[in-house]
Amino acid sequence: MSGAPGEAERQVARVLARARHIAVLTGAGVSAESGISTFRSAAADMHALWKEFDPRTLATPEAFADDPARVTRWYDARRIGCLNAAPNPGHLALTTLQRALRSRGGDLVVLTQNVDRLHHKAGTQGVVELHGNIVTWRCTRTGQSIEPPPEPMPRFPAPSPFHPEGLLRPNVVWFGEALPTDAVVAAEEAAGACGVFMAVGTSSQVFPAAGFIQTAMARGAVTVEINPESTSISDLVTYSLKGRSGEVLPRLVGTAA
Ligand code: OAD
Questions:
Q1: Distance from the first to the final alpha carbon of the chain
Q2: What is the whole-number distance in angstroms between the Cα of residue 143 and the centre of ligand 1?
Q3: How much is the average pLDDT of 84-91?
Q4: How far is the CA of 242 from the centre of ligand 1 (A)?
Q5: Best probe residue, ligand 1, of 82, 94, 113, 249 (max atoms within 8 Å of C-beta)
Q6: Half-sphere exposure (Cβ direction) of 144: Cα atoms closer than 13 Å
Q7: Sheet containing 107-112: which strands, arranged edge to edge?
Q8: Contact 112, 128 (CB under 8 A)
Q9: Cis ω before 148 (30° cut-off from 0)
Q10: Is the pLDDT confidence value at 161 over 50?
Q11: Interval 232-245 mean pLDDT
């Protein structure tokens, strides 16, 4: 899509105002303005976790088996960061848009790769968590989940309250693990049924999440990307809006201050 950025944004705002079914794939960028780090960024000045840490030593079952104390300490610090974070105007604009669509018989489904629960905190309903969440942890022996209290865990690795030989691990999806089947089914369904598909704050590099846009495109949906940087889908989408989601989304939805 060419033309002045302002004009593209106005066109997208009109598309959203007329839409009935919208699917929104969100990534770490949507929470950046809430103070949560992203994983990858081309910009030299932008903090990104996988620039600082090797994901193979933290975000794989093998890393946890090798050094459960190191992995759980790192995830627990991120858990506390997420618990202390507040949704930003981008999250809130999606909630407003969902309410508007539902009031006219449509729906907006958020498919998130984020584990921070900020869409929930913003009041969005029916969020599909593709990569799990960091707020609940489960026993490695029994699979039972608990929500640890909102303070740093006292011991690493964290012993499971459910089994004497179990450890607690975050309910996130690590590299090499399968995504929850019900989340993938719900995402495919939303992508296949939507008239508008938006990819917001994601580098679109991690599959299967990055592939849902193909389902929407095959169905003929209007596609929109919101990201300050170019990604592999920027040239494929109907509208590529360059900017921060906490600023662009409220303007599109009409909730900007
Ligand atoms: P990435 O860190 O790969 O990408 C974040 C994207 O957000 C980048 O393209 C940034 O340009 C963009 N961005 C930064 N600030 C933004 C802002 N204010 N508004 C909008 N966009 C902004 O994060 P994801 O695509 O979510 O998986 O990464 C996908 C998965 O890779 C994560 O869920 C995680 C990671 O490894 C696992 O841990 C399994």
A1: 27
A2: 28
A3: 98
A4: 15
A5: 113
A6: 9
A7: 128-129, 107-112, 21-26, 196-200, 222-226, 239-241
A8: yes
A9: no
A10: yes
A11: 97
Q: What are phi and psi of 74, to 5 degrees?
A: -65, -45
- Residue 20 burial (10 A CB sphere; 0-12, 13-18, 19+): middle
Q: What is the 3-state secondary structure (H, E, C) of 105-172?
A: CCEEEEEECCCCCHHHHCCCCCCEECCEEEEEEEECCCCCEECCCCCCCCCCCCECCCCCCCEEEEEE
Q: How do residues 188-199 score in pLDDT, each as one tens digit?
A: 999 999 999 999
3-state secondary structure (DSSP) of residue 4: coil
Class of residue 59 by CB neighbours under 10 A (exposed 0-12, middle 13-18, buried 19+): buried
pTM reported for the whole predicted model:
0.95
119 is annotated as an active-site residue: no
Mutate to test the pocket of ligand 1, among 111, 202, 249 (most ligand atoms within 8 A of CB): 202
Compute and round to an integer the Cα radius of gyration of the chain: 19
Mean pLDDT of 141-156: 97
Residue 49: the pLDDT is: 76
Structure tokens at 144: 């039972």
Q: How far is CA 182 from CA 65, 128, 179, 186, 227, in A?
A: 27, 9, 9, 6, 28
Ligand 1 centre distance from Cα of residue 13 (Å): 24
Whole-angstrom distance, CA of residue 214 vs CA of residue 52: 31
Atom in ligand 1 nearest the alpha carbon of residue 43: 11
Provide the 3-class DSSP secondary structure of residue 206: coil
